[in-house]
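>> received
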Amino acid sequence: MIWLILALLLVSNPGGEIKLNLTDSGKVEISDQCIFFKDTFNNSAVLEPGLYDLKVGFNCSPGDKTIFLDGKTYATVRIKKLDDEDLNNATKVQIELLKTKKELSLTVEKLQEIVEELNKSMLEIEKLEKEKASLENELKILNERYEDLQMKYESISRELEGKKKKLMEMEKEVQSLSDLNLTYRTTMLFLVSIFIGSFTSLAIKGMRKS
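>> returned
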């Protein structure tokens, strides 16, 4: 196993970067938090085999740091010592970098919140659009019903007007027949009167002759 340990001996300076070649999947943990994964700023993660970038903080003390895979030693990171001036400058840069990263992270979080709010607004707009389409459809149906009822009303109105005209004609016909009946009755009374008068005159004459 000596060749494996030697193959996984990584060397870096504070502020440097190293690549971790992971041949097996599992939980990776780094003994010192000054060494962390570049993309997550965490010093532990569950990973699949692959090549991963590690960042060595400027505040990392010289010496050997251990990388564990599922609790077992997988690699050793040897941190070299910087002189005091370089270490001081590097630490300031690291602090500023971490501050910038933090601000960037907060900005990303705010952006995500804005995106979530935008998505909610889009969903609300979509909901309102569906409600609008539904109301427009209902309005169309009501308009069609109104037009149908309007046509039926006009048809019934025409039919009623026709019946009114027919009723007026029938009333005129009844009045005409009533007038005719009155004329007929008057004529009959006149004829009866003449007949009775003639009959009475003849009867009187007959009585005189006898």
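>> Residues 2-82 form a domain with the Immunoglobulin-like fold (CATH 2.60.40.10).
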